[in-house]
């Protein structure tokens, strides 16, 4: 979704950035009322490590321990106008779907499909057709519809008693921060950029104030709201500060948010899904209209993500009465090191 593949350019001259939100909104539910029933092994979650929207689903899947029942296909960090591709896999084909391009799964669903080919996407393995690419609903359904298959000790990421407030917080995080960085980066005029920049940092100031006295966005434990904010913060200094001109401050210069981001990053299920080299390669190569040279920056040094954050003093615990997820599933490990520039140590 980061950056769907519906066209060659991302900036509309003279205009504010408008995200295409026309998704396939089918849902996979416990009762299968909409035609898609939760079943172990039936679906494949297709993601890209680079994409913040797909990163949400990789985190939630891992926190809930759904790896044994929901397989994951991983696209490479770059794509062309047609589609995300499985160029990281042997022979350049997804080993389960036997596709070279994610586009093929969309065309299997609708031979005339003409919208963006986006990640994350849930694909029905028997038919090899996309079920949904509605990124916001996918993670909520993993929390609420797949409960039969959650691991012992899995966190409740969408607590019923917090949902009204959570929905408001997540909506503001989405419009002002998750999408706000894109409004800055893809602004087609100075006026559009200035407006987007102001909105973004107004929201970051609000978040700093909210998190000054509470460990997580909704209180003492991690929820879906933290997942959604984290995937943008993880990319802020590596990409958004420079590439998208979100440059009032770096994340490392916002004391509360930087400590919060490190706290979450160091929690199992979060930092172990972040691949800084792939993130940088995606943005700086794919967005050729705002980085025509396709030169990828060496920095920043990402070792500082592993430094002490001190947020334990606020109390709380990431999983409440639950437990952290176990080791990363075989074959899904991040091979990039956290060294100067986040350069992979392979």
The CATH class of the domain at 163-342 is Mainly Alpha
Low-confidence stretches: none
First-last Cα distance:
28 Å
Order of helices and strands: EHEHEEHHHHHHHH
Shape: globular
Rg, Cα atoms, Å: 19 Å
What oligomeric assembly is this protein in? single chain
Task: Tell me the fraction of residues in β-strands, as a range.
Answer: 5-15%
Number of distinct beta strands: 4
Query: Mean pLDDT score, rounded?
Result: 93
Structural class: mainly alpha
The major pleated sheet works out as: 4 strands, mixed
Which sequence of strands runs across the widest sheet? Answer: 2-1-3-4
- Please state the second-level CATH architecture of the domain at 163-342: Up-down Bundle
Count of DSSP helices? 10
CATH fold description of the domain at 163-342:
Glutathione S-transferase Yfyf (Class Pi), Chain A, domain 2
The share of residues in helices is 25-40%
Pfam families: GST_C_2 (PF13410)
Domain GST C-terminal: 148-286
Region (Disordered): 311-346
Site (Lowers pKa of active site Cys): 240, 283
Please explain how this structure is put together:
With 346 residues, the protein is mainly alpha-helical. It has a domain at 163-342: Glutathione S-transferase Yfyf (Class Pi), Chain A, domain 2. Helix content is 32%, strand content 5%. It is built from ten helices and four strands, in the order E-H-E-H-E-E-H-H-H-H-H-H-H-H. Strand 3 (121-124) and strand 4 (129-132) form a beta hairpin. The active site is at residues 51, 182. This is Putative glutathione S-transferase. Residues 148-286 form the GST C-terminal domain. Residues 311-346 are annotated as: Disordered.
